[in-house]
Fold these 2 entries.
Entry 1:
Amino acid sequence: MSYTKIAAIYADSETLSGQTVTVGGWVRTIRDMKQFGFLELNDGSCFKNLQVVMDAGVLSNYAEIAAQNVGAALVVTGAVVLTPGAKQPLELKAASIEVEGTSTPDYPLQKKRHSPEFLRTIQHLRPRTNLFSAAFRVRSAAAFAIHQFFQDRGFVYVHTPIITASDCEGAGEMFRVTTLDPKNPPLTEDGQVDFSQDFFGKPANLTVSGQLNAENFAMAFGDVYTFGPTFRAENSNTQRHAAEFWMIEPEMAFCDLKGDMDVAEAMIKYVLRYVMNKCPDELSFFNSFVDKGLLERLEHVASSDFGRVSYTEAVEILSKNNDQFDYQVFWGCDLQTEHERYLTEQVYQKPVFVTDYPKEIKAFYMRLNDDNKTVAATDCLVPGIGEIIGGSQREERLEVLERRIQELGMKPEDYWWYCDLRRYGSCRHAGFGLGFERLVMYLTGISNIRDVLPHPRTVGNAEF
Amino acid sequence: MSYTKIAAIYADSETLSGQTVTVGGWVRTIRDMKQFGFLELNDGSCFKNLQVVMDAGVLSNYAEIAAQNVGAALVVTGAVVLTPGAKQPLELKAASIEVEGTSTPDYPLQKKRHSPEFLRTIQHLRPRTNLFSAAFRVRSAAAFAIHQFFQDRGFVYVHTPIITASDCEGAGEMFRVTTLDPKNPPLTEDGQVDFSQDFFGKPANLTVSGQLNAENFAMAFGDVYTFGPTFRAENSNTQRHAAEFWMIEPEMAFCDLKGDMDVAEAMIKYVLRYVMNKCPDELSFFNSFVDKGLLERLEHVASSDFGRVSYTEAVEILSKNNDQFDYQVFWGCDLQTEHERYLTEQVYQKPVFVTDYPKEIKAFYMRLNDDNKTVAATDCLVPGIGEIIGGSQREERLEVLERRIQELGMKPEDYWWYCDLRRYGSCRHAGFGLGFERLVMYLTGISNIRDVLPHPRTVGNAEF
């Protein structure tokens, strides 16, 4: 901890010029010219490497160091020298170098291009590459920006539960959480699995959303947000789906759909600006090597007013272009990614909120509009991705909510506490869900969700 | 969102004095004196209520408002009036009040003392009480303080996976995560459960710690931290254990045990100071109604240098007082809570790090000391709680680690990637785990973990 971080050397180069510092890091490249040599050291504190100059006349162990393999861990003490004319703004003239941990000639991360598929097989090492170093640093910055945005606005961060005993959203396939014997589970007298003997005394699952729980807290704290892992046991093998992913779900009392969109728009812009300020080297790398238009798009989105259009209007616009789609658009249909992208990329050329969807294609808790046909829902669509946020004003009227629960064949007793919120001091409220990985993909241009998750979990994959 | 938060009124009372604002919140108390009345409104933006003055001469719906029950949601528009001599520093003179949502005379949270046990049966409503309003606001502030502490120091936040396919710590009972039919699981030819047909193609569990994964990232980023849920399927029903809880696990490269303790001590002090500054009303409430010595203890801890003592020395001290313990202390024994509390409360009277425990009672990944008997582990003990942090320097020597894995009868092939970290650029590194709920209990004086978790999960309990 008494070592100087490379990030600090770049940040404070004027002050540190001529000073002696000690740096611990890993060799990215090494060049031995017999009497002297260069190595690029990376310590993970920033995207950039530090160039270290080794002089055989100075280093008694020059030969040992020059023989190190890529990936070796070194501790280097030396003087910071500014090099204004050179490729890099500064370098470290080594006075001493110690080998902390060697590497081997068959170190899997040699200086060459590796495919993302190969790198997924060495997830424990891939953070040491430029791509993943940048991706996970952006991920960390974006996560903090989310917290900062909400905390600055007085939102209370709530850790909604991961294990739940009810499939509250009816959101489809869930993972079961159990301590029962997998082969010989206890049975009841009528031959069913006796879940009363399971850990929680009933069947339990991994949560698909913290929203209903978050509403409990919004009705006390006004503005709250969750930020935690959520799970889907969908047997789908796409670039955009993982079984385990992180979600942000704000929930706001005394807030309608318009207020909901205002917060969502402000949040996205805040995170974009934060990451653009905090991670310029990373974004510049992505812009050069992953997605040429990235910086321009982020700048554009951060400074645009997002569009807002009703589902009904959107369907009118889209159905005029039905010849361009695999799936025809008609009122009542669920919008496909091709429709969403057409709307945000071709029609609006910026992010757009689509509002007031048919109730049949949306969840039970969304507020029924006066037309009795649509609900106060919104999806935020962004160029290059499609849907990034789904939100709604919630149904705050007890009788309307109960009717909806029954219409959908759900069991009202499962929702006694959710309905209680409408019994005691109910109020307008709204919220949304942001899939965090989608946001990181948007910020980096990375197109596969497996490459923005530290250790992705998908069908058939839970390694590391 | 265009409403003014009560927190903002208190914070900006000079500016807002005489101004008209609109507030949305819930009735905590209501007093009707026929021609005028008072109500206390809480909107969750801060601990304090707002006193609203109702005048029957001003409000055309005075009777309707005066008849509202505790818990009702109201929207109040009125002028902010400073009341320097009065019990509260300001009040709102209502010009209009609208009922947003009524409550009922049998609203469960009447103005009287409710037992924590009762309140656990109405977890959806308990955030509306003073106790839980304060507890969860402190929890949110402490969570943010943790992020701020690490981000300010350049640590990268890593979302280590929740679902894992290996019991890497060997840390005991885990929850199984599955999509197999619970009653008739597929079987292999030899009659065993065929986990190749399970979602991940093998048995999977909920994580007990993100540490081993965090090490992957520390070896790339230098300093990283996790902050996420962890799980224990222990059938224990105590005040200090939950099946689902949140943990913070920093991991630092080029860091030894001393550096590890330095970070842990700085982090605890930072969080204490942050919460003391951010939540004075909440802490003052806890100090008055939950734990009389709280404020004094927090101030003392935030300004003390933590003690540091080796396990061997601690055993010497403790064994002289064996007559005071249920369990006798001897070299080699695991310290019980009674011993830990004696050490921190009686001997040191402040937090203390105990270091260098016998290897037999600690985990396989902890670094073996030169004495071959102890490992570079540390527990941080705090008055009133006992252990709050457990950490260690990790074994960075491949051959020592592999020997330890075999000694303990673990399977080396399960740890191929963990051992790889020692093969390619290994370096000294260290980290620790902080149970977040323990920290919140410490900050609030609340003695039952069920009362610092939004919706606690324990044996037999996964309601809400």
Entry 2:
Amino acid sequence: MSLIDLHEDRLFPSDSRVRSLARHLYDTVRDLPIISPHGHTDPSWFAENEPFPNPAALLITPDHYVFRMLYSQGIPLEALGVPKQPRAGGPEIERNPRKVWRLFAENYHLFHGTPSRMWHDWVYSEVFGLTETLSADTADLYFDTIDAKLKQDDFRPRALFDRYNIEIIATTEDPLDPLVHHSKLKDDGWGKKVITAFRPDNVLDPEYEGFADNIARLGEITGCDTTTYQGYLDALMDRRAYFKQHGATSSDHGHPTATTADLARFEAETLFAKVTAGDFSTDEAEIFRGHMLVEMARMSLEDGLVMQIHPGSFRNHNQGVFERFGRDKGADIPTRTDYVAALQPLLSRYGNEPNLSVILFTLDESVYSRELAPLAGHYPVLKLGPAWWFHDSPEGMRRFREQTTETAGFYNTVGFNDDTRAFLSIPARHDVARRMDCGFLARLVAEHRMLEEDAAQVAQDLAYNLAKAAYRL
Amino acid sequence: MSLIDLHEDRLFPSDSRVRSLARHLYDTVRDLPIISPHGHTDPSWFAENEPFPNPAALLITPDHYVFRMLYSQGIPLEALGVPKQPRAGGPEIERNPRKVWRLFAENYHLFHGTPSRMWHDWVYSEVFGLTETLSADTADLYFDTIDAKLKQDDFRPRALFDRYNIEIIATTEDPLDPLVHHSKLKDDGWGKKVITAFRPDNVLDPEYEGFADNIARLGEITGCDTTTYQGYLDALMDRRAYFKQHGATSSDHGHPTATTADLARFEAETLFAKVTAGDFSTDEAEIFRGHMLVEMARMSLEDGLVMQIHPGSFRNHNQGVFERFGRDKGADIPTRTDYVAALQPLLSRYGNEPNLSVILFTLDESVYSRELAPLAGHYPVLKLGPAWWFHDSPEGMRRFREQTTETAGFYNTVGFNDDTRAFLSIPARHDVARRMDCGFLARLVAEHRMLEEDAAQVAQDLAYNLAKAAYRL
Amino acid sequence: MSLIDLHEDRLFPSDSRVRSLARHLYDTVRDLPIISPHGHTDPSWFAENEPFPNPAALLITPDHYVFRMLYSQGIPLEALGVPKQPRAGGPEIERNPRKVWRLFAENYHLFHGTPSRMWHDWVYSEVFGLTETLSADTADLYFDTIDAKLKQDDFRPRALFDRYNIEIIATTEDPLDPLVHHSKLKDDGWGKKVITAFRPDNVLDPEYEGFADNIARLGEITGCDTTTYQGYLDALMDRRAYFKQHGATSSDHGHPTATTADLARFEAETLFAKVTAGDFSTDEAEIFRGHMLVEMARMSLEDGLVMQIHPGSFRNHNQGVFERFGRDKGADIPTRTDYVAALQPLLSRYGNEPNLSVILFTLDESVYSRELAPLAGHYPVLKLGPAWWFHDSPEGMRRFREQTTETAGFYNTVGFNDDTRAFLSIPARHDVARRMDCGFLARLVAEHRMLEEDAAQVAQDLAYNLAKAAYRL
């Protein structure tokens, strides 16, 4: 039997001088409220405030970090209870959450050295009061303990939200979403705590499933004639305004690349006609997406939404898994991503605008020092989003600071994004970021590259102030 | 005069807490037998068990790490005794091994900070009992000491094999090789200790020297009609079976890129006709190689050979050196390598097969966190080979773990490959890997990211168990 | 109020064992003379020896590291006194240097964690004797103190040159430069201390502003008929000889990529006719530049100038800034850069020449371990320039050594380049390099990867000997 190790000095460098400095810095930020400006929690949780379901349905089945690792070691997704597409073949889905949980517990060693392990251990220990580590032996103890607590009122979403000291959280919705949960949240006085963000990929990307239908639906919702380019732009502007009414301060764009394009009006109209007719090449799809990023920047200048660009994921790389299980099943793989040439059309048009703010993310760490830090260290509109997705990890965060700070400084970055649908782990994720940032600052202080008093100010900014300012919260 | 420093704590981080943890972990793995599933030792050494020749011929002339560094500083390859191609011009080759040795000794400072230096120092100290460092002053002492020992029976290949505590070693042969040494080894009862691996580049790559002749020879050896595509496939399957009889558990593929292609049968037949006729473009050669990787995967599904893909080397970059000295003269240079799009055809076809195993290597470290760890952390067929070639070094190994573990974990990796023809240094190379892995694990423990007991288990797995399992030994 | 922290152990790793070793190594190199073989100081400073102007004009307005960071945070370049192009619109330029200085001081926190901060702090403390950190509160104290000192004779350029213990410095001039300052320096007996370097981009790059005019002017200066290719080559050779008379030992080539090309004579002549006529595609411009690098290598073989290749910057990325403020305004952004295929034409032709020396630089750190170290660890003509531009920083220098040493060793590198026009900070920059190298060596010693006595020799070489040898000084 072994015990979960949530040591108070976890993640700090081992060197005693650095560790001591890190601990002092961390003590000043550990209890700051959580600002979560970018994430994927389900607004219905906070709107309805129903109890979360069983441990497997809460912690395993929806977490692609968890099931991708298990799948990589030969465990079928069906055995983990991951739902299949209609009419997909293969084995039966496991319906017994306890069995799913046991399978996870037996394979918990696969997560050694991963952030998933740290996030889960924190949840088990801090939220559910478990002390022994998860294993085959403790699987049932875990299942029963968690299952019982989830039925208690103080484990409902709003209670956890408050216990977690979350000041504000943004969810992510697409333009076709009616935002009913956000409306209810507003009515309940939670409108300042849970806001939406505008994610229009499904109406900007001609290669998105159902694109043409989505455009038509966009027209119905807004009353704009989306068979014309002008009507389409009007509809987007209309939905942006609607999202702003539901708290949105940002848009988010998850494109395959960072390509931007600044088409002349008639070119854009012609291309819009082609992509909505379904008559386009992959190059034309790419140009249309790129052009629409420039249009989004223009609209941001008007309405003030902060623009987030999240490029570089090759979605649904595993065709077999996609056919049987659909999107978001751990098979999105990062690709090499260019920003320098790709962003030039957007930056030539709007790069020096004082009132525009564009936050760049990457899945390609080789661009931190080569492209992103030099770009953000020059263009007034650009800021760097934190280490993202696979790089939202201790080593990933360390590389982000080591490779961006010397050129872009701290003040062209925007604090932390948890970017997660795993609501229970949100404090653990922010805690990892705070610890890693304090560890990085502590090293700078120990190496006499920064004064301790300055590091303390920066630590506050990274943990709280920068996110509020960058996302205009 | 200075002494060789093989300190018991070498390669461990300096921080006393981490170092102490590393030492404890290392103590549990230092004496484990060596599993060497991928390498380039000469099977005739073990089959014939003749004494190794003189120090220069053993340690300098065949080691491209050594002579490339000396060459880079202006020392002609001829002066190092490197054999030339027939009819190549230029200076005479140095025939006196003592003179070659002295030249190396005088320039030993060039290797400061390199793994070659560590491997050589270990060999000098641990194998030959030398205590002073190599230099111009000690060159003759070294030469005489090593030369004398090499004549002793306990320095013959089999004696060193046993002294080195090697449990199993794989050599690498091409399909045209008759495997006579492996046959003799089998007869001598060494068949479980020295096995072959199937490396068919010379009959899969249309751009390989003598490709068409090789295909013809493949037909002669197997009795298959390799003028037809089906006969060619049959011949490959036949040789795979023959290699399996000589112990092979893996195939190995050293292609310029990771491109895979899944051609329709008639396309493959047409392309086969073109490439064997010598009538093909570089693009067609690339597609043929890529298609044959998918065929190899199909055969692996049938016969169980583990498939290794080693892409990304621009072979024989230095045309002058290639013309005068031929292949493998230190002029192979890594190139930027894509895996995400390149592997999709293979993975679409076989990526979810429970019985296939594909081990990926890279010379492009930028793909560790961006491509390889995400791919291996998802696809059941994929595992990550260790840091390879230029990256088979302390810093390279550290980067490999830092950049892959958080996404792929430890259990999608396969232990260490020494990948060497430098037989004498094999224990030193495995020792470097064990020390670096223990140092990495120790840091995770010291930073409370892993329990010490879990780290001890992982250390065992990395040093021994994973290689045995991944290579089906 | 806080004090500048120029701790004697700054930049050394915090671990006490490593730090102690680093300090010992550093003590042996800290006072070595400065060799500055590549930089952008203004030769008129040393020739005329006039006092430097006010603090803002000396330390802010010409330093693109400084104003790019301030600009990235929304401060207009006009407010920093950066001069505009004739007829450019926008706000008035701030003419009061004290106001510019105050703006900088108020925003000094933006530079936390950047090398600019370390360089500036050193200048303030060591050169001007200031003790409190720069801030809004101390802005006027700083301005007045610095302004007063700059008027003293012992703060004139030659006095600082001697106080800085600079043995030799190279400036950079283009072939059209008459080198009048260098002539005067020679007459004054300073010809061995301040030398020029030959930077012919403006007559080799068809896309350079005024290229055709520059070629014509080159003809006038040399008396060669630069309307013909042969006359053009003759003119270049003539100017190289003239630069050598003014001390030049190197040429420098700042191309967008590392492309080289080895055209047949008639191809080169035809292309020369096209590019000088202004009738060429971007591909043709690229090939012409690439071909001229091979021609430069040929000329270097004749005249012995060491060739520096500085590729990979996307110049003037910000079109708005370029139009209003011109070149070199912090908007040059690094791009992904290939060396392996790009350099092959040059290396196929001249890669094994004993008397040629080519120093490679990069802005793309991903090539250190993948391309540059393997190339330099093999080709006799190649050496690696130090971490450059955005990577000329503590973390950048650390990555350079960690990622190149194991494959290329120390002796295929060339010491430090400050590469700066910020004369006052030159000792601070060399000091950072010496400290970082000593810290790196100290870690190798502490990890028993290198003997302390060997590290001491390497430290000397990195700080002084290698630069002298590599640049043939």
